[in-house]
Amino acid sequence: MRLTVNGRNHDVDAAPDTALLYVLRNDLALNGPKYGCGLGECGACAVLIDGVAARACVIPIEGCAGRSIVTLEGLGTREHPDPVQDAFIREQAAQCGYCLNGMIITTKALLTRNPSPSEHEVLEALRYNLCRCGAHIEIIRAAMRAAGHALEARD
Amino acid sequence: MSAYSVVGKSVPRVDLPAKATGELVYVHDVRVPGMLHGRVVRPPYAGVDAGPFVGTSLIAVDEASVHDIPGLVAVVRIGDFIGVVAEREENAIKAAAQLKVSWKPGPDLTDLSDIEQALRASPSTPRQLIDKGDVDAAIKAAAKPMQRTYIWPYQMHGSIGPSCAVADYGEDAIRVWSGTQNPHILRGDLALLIQRPESEIDVIRMEAAGCYGRNCADDVTADALLLSRAVGRPVRVQLTREQEHAWEPKGTAQLMDVNGGLNADGSVAGYDFATRYPSNGAPTLALLLTGRIAPEAAVFEMGDRTAIPPYDYENMRVIANDMPPIVRASWFRGVSALPNTFAHESYIDELAAEAEVDPIEYRLRYLKDKRAIDLVNAVAERAGWTPRPIRQEPEAEGDIVRGRGFAYALYVHSKFPGYGAAWSAWIADVAVNKATGDVSVTRVVAGQDSGLMINPDGVRHQIEGNVIQSTSRALMEEVSFERGAVAAREWGAYPIIKFPELPKIDVLMLPRQDQPPLGVGESASVPSAAAIANAIYDATGVRFRELPFTPERILKGLHGEQPAAPASLAPPVQPADLNRWQNPLAKRGGMLAGIAALFAAAIGIGAAALPWRAIAPIARPDASVYSAATIARGKELAALGACAVCHTSEHGVANAGGRPLETPFGTIYTTNITPDVDTGIGAWSYPAFERAMREGIHRDGRHLYPAFPYTHFARTSDADLQALYAYLMAQAPVRAATPANALAFPFNLRPLLAGWNALFHQPQIFQPDPSKSATWNRGAYLIEGLGHCSACHSPRNALGAERQAAYLAGGFAEGWEAPALTSLSKAPVPWSEDELYAYLRTGESRLHGVAAGPMAPVVRELAALPDQDIRAMAVYLASFNTPVDRSAHDALAARLETTTTATTAASAAPASTKAPVRSAMRSAARRCSAAGRRWR
């Protein structure tokens, strides 16, 4: 099975019904997408498939052939972060950070289809990404910053 | 002060760049050369870790059942501990799922369907923490005795990442990579488990997902070590979501009894407080499952945190009833202080209300701590608190009433008497929908005195995190049990707060940089539940003394059989009987089989979304219990829902199913909805029917495919669903088995569907918009609900859910284009209300052509609906379009007629030349239908 991940082709020796997440993490040694529920409920495993936020824990690799898969690593690096990654770092938009991958990927997909979302649209886009620490306030600020909105300074 | 150069300034975190770019950070990311993948199989007594059956229940493991798994390395069994090891992770997952294991019949576990009863019945040892004045005499002499009971449910820590560990057991070195919070204690446990000296074991501590007390981090480390020892290679073990949910040591349920009352002058007569906290430190699971330690529950003295109220009551007694856990439990953020404070701060609010004194002013009379007083005043000022000595009925906005509540706490932790962390106070604003029972926390002013703040930005994060997490706990969190074992095993069954439900949060951090620093990790959680309960009381006049404040509990309190307002002058009664909801509607194990589940299922997704939870079959109901009028109403509704259009195959018997529906994901065959017991819905109770309609779950617990538009039906009222049930049950049963679905991968996966529901389905009953007319609202109810128009007329996203942002903006049904019903319509002539009415009533609009393709039988079915309902649908749909007057309509039509005649004449496709405009419309449909499938 050939997969295109972060702009490079990879021939993967895994059964076609293998969830994309395990191939990304184990065969490609990527850390961005996280196992959270295996049911597509929490969003921790999100990746971009043809620019759309998809849940790698329930998508079999056979559905991904011929599609462009981008993970958190493919967006940018510590030295050259994507504007969305940069906004999340600047807004300190994580506590434990386990959900952070899904928040960034989902925000990236939102901004791709809607470059200037309202706060309401941000909330709706992130509705199905779960965060348990309660970093939501900073996550919303990060998404709004990435969308180019001016933010109120914090005291 | 000024000697500090870094302390006291907000500093960005050093870990975030790595986390935001996918560098190796978490224990989940550890990869060791030669590493294998392991999974464990847990026993059926889910979440229970004490009793003679623990470690002794396994009968047999059938290794042959997994011999076909590629790359399987080992099946490991020690006592009740079972693990599988494979070269590839997905094969370890398959092996764990496929392994045949036989267990002894389930032990009798403690019934947790009634938490209060279970906690009272469980053995305990009273420990007196304070006895001041003469409580008994004071209460006996009280002018207004008040006896109250407060109940806290079992809750989950709910780490977003299920626990994971890697172990490498070599003869010369034993190494584990772990997300443990207690590496030293863990090392002792591991040494005990494998009978090696602690000094030989290296524990490498890595970050893990946040755990807020305890999760399964230690358990999984021990699991990995056992598997690595068995195979002689490094093994990574990842617990599943289900295992983390089932086995994490829960935040325990807790029961608080308060006896006391008021003197004639409104002062507090006495305060007699007793708390029951069944929890301990949750021993590492592998030690219990392998029989290395005895499965006897230890008693920890941890129910005493903030058990003594912060108020200087003259006569006061506080007892902590120490008890062993009932299910596996351990400390959870705020520990016992959070439930204890729920009781203290609710009770003083009740006292203030009875005394007719503003609740903040009343507290200040008994608060002697200067920093506490300063904090309370600062928070009241920040929130703009207005004194409310007597509760005023708020002005309702439609069904919504608003209120605000206050609570204060000093979180006291560590061994009694312990010491204080940061001071915290909340003012919560809530909105309560009296029709649906929904509570929304709209704003929280959270004030905190933390002493010296080392990194103020970090303190703010902790306060916000506490506010959000504890609001979630108060509003919606409760572990469900099935015959005493944990039943909630995924997020659908244990919902937590989502972005759109967040309160606005105003954090007030008192500047105390000259004071010693205090713990800030938990304090801001502690006042949460009481502040919200007090706000709900302010809004509704009803006291809620049991969490969580779910819609069903609120509705029950507002309208239920039990009088909810406190009977202030009633004589004291036994705590067991007082202020306790007879609670058949709670989302608890075993309840769904009863009629009570009807309402629970109607309101929340909650525990009802458990895919393995079947509703028992019933004998086919006797339709004669329903009136002719009800059945007739059901017939109209069946027509509106056009049930028969999909649930009847070509030339088949009405409603007997079998019609193939082509979806982008494969073919789905519609089911038999006649009341045949074996192949239809004859064995479906009304709760099963209603759950299917609202939540898309088959009676047998399977998820239904979202081609069945339950996302719309969920909005239908109870009365209408009951009528529809009556009608369907009154029809002749037809025996007709449904063909198996032929769905493309991955849509034939049940887990994907469970996820689908969590992602896209909001089972809420329709809410009228008060700013619109009654006709509009009726139309909205019909269109959005049973009419399920947007199921076809809205585009679906990659996962088959209707895109909310593109509501009614055009989609596809069976290869036909379902035109946009809004102003995005490609129709050259906008749809007006009159044209919509004509089209839906007669199947023909003079400007838009006839209803063809999948719409034709829909209009045929709509013939059963009264004119006023069709009119309401037209009014509602027309409201999405720019209004046009009739003459402009006609002029535009005439103009188009001349320009399109030539086009259609030149077209090879047969077209009606009598109505050129109409044919222009249809030609657009043909272009799409040519590429799609014919209606069959």
Which two protein chains have the largest interface (Cβ within 8 Å of the partner's Cβ), and how many residues from each?
A-B, 73 and 69 residues
**Tally of helical runs of chain B:** 28
Task: Tell me the CATH superfamily of the largest domain in chain A.
Answer: Beta-grasp domain
The helix content of chain B, as a percent range, equals 25-40%
Number of helices of chain A: 6
Helix-and-strand structural type of chain B: alpha+beta
Flag low-confidence runs of chain B: 562-613, 743-763, 794-828, 899-936
The residue fraction in helices of chain A comes out at 25-40%
End-to-end C-alpha gap of chain B = 82 Å
The Cα radius of gyration of chain B reads: 31 Å
Describe this entry's structure for a reader.
By secondary structure, chain A is of the alpha+beta class. Chain A has two domains: 2-75, Ubiquitin-like (UB roll) (Roll), CATH 3.10.20.30; 83-146, DNA polymerase, domain 1. In chain A, 34% of the residues lie in helices and 12% in strands. The longest helix of chain A is centred in the last third of the chain and has 14 residues, at 100-113. Chain A is elongated, with a radius of gyration of 15 Å. In chain B, helix 15 runs parallel beside helix 18 and helix 27 (886-906) crosses helix 28. Chain B has four domains: 25-107 and 163-247, Aldehyde Oxidoreductase, domain 4; 115-155 and 251-577, Aldehyde oxidase/xanthine dehydrogenase, molybdopterin binding domain (Aldehyde Oxidoreductase, domain 4, 2-Layer Sandwich); 597-760, no CATH class; 774-931, no CATH class. Chain B contains 28 helices and 27 strands. Chain B is α+β, with helices and mostly antiparallel strands and 936 residues long. At the A-B interface, helix 1, strand 4, helix 2, helix 3 and helix 4 of A face helix 1, helix 12 and helix 21 of B.
